[in-house]
Amino acid sequence: MVFFPKFEALINRANIVFSGGGIEDLLAIYLLNNHSFPYEEADLLMIDDTVFRGFIDSDDYKAIQESYKDSYFWDKLIEHFVGDLLTDGMFEYGTNQVTDNQLALVQMALQPRGHRANLVDAFSEFLHKPELKISARVVLAHKNTAFVFHLGPSSDREARVQELGLRCLVVRGRLPDVQIVVGISGDKLGPSEVGYSHDIVYVDIPEWNDDFEEQVTRIQKELGYFENASWAKKPENA
User: Domains of the chain: which residue ranges?
Assistant: First the structure.
């Protein structure tokens, strides 16, 4: 959320006097003005304590809450993964050991509310529309973090995690503005012989080199992962 940097910039250039309220009133002003403060020339602000109370009773607030409704599934997904980590139910790509690396979850948690809603919409469509006939989907999210959604059976989690990791590597190589890729894999909807599980992969490659490029070219040629994607800055399917 960019509120705090903008709030810090505001208090550095202007004196703010709260008349019985507090930072929540400034937050309401920020949200009501398209995520900005309309006080570029002001050096003194007096904030009434009714701003936030009026905001939460407004149609604008109700509309924001409605638009964010789907995003709360992302919160539940993070909680689910945390539970898996605490109960040794998640494996680390490359080692097949229980992971203590929470960087992927940090990236999930860093996604602002609006981006979470977009991620959930993309994930839900991918999961509930088998007629799309795709096994993975890429979504470019906040601060050029890419997410790869993938479906594979829990009966062979090792192979599922390996494929997810390779797909994440392809995404890192084919989206030049992306450094971090988070992969999320789970079962298709329907019956499962061994139950249901999720796996997560974290790829962070600051510098791309010829060796990585050679790997990605070979992966796409031999396995076809995202081979036909156009790699525009929007959700891509393969």
Answer: 3-66, 70-237
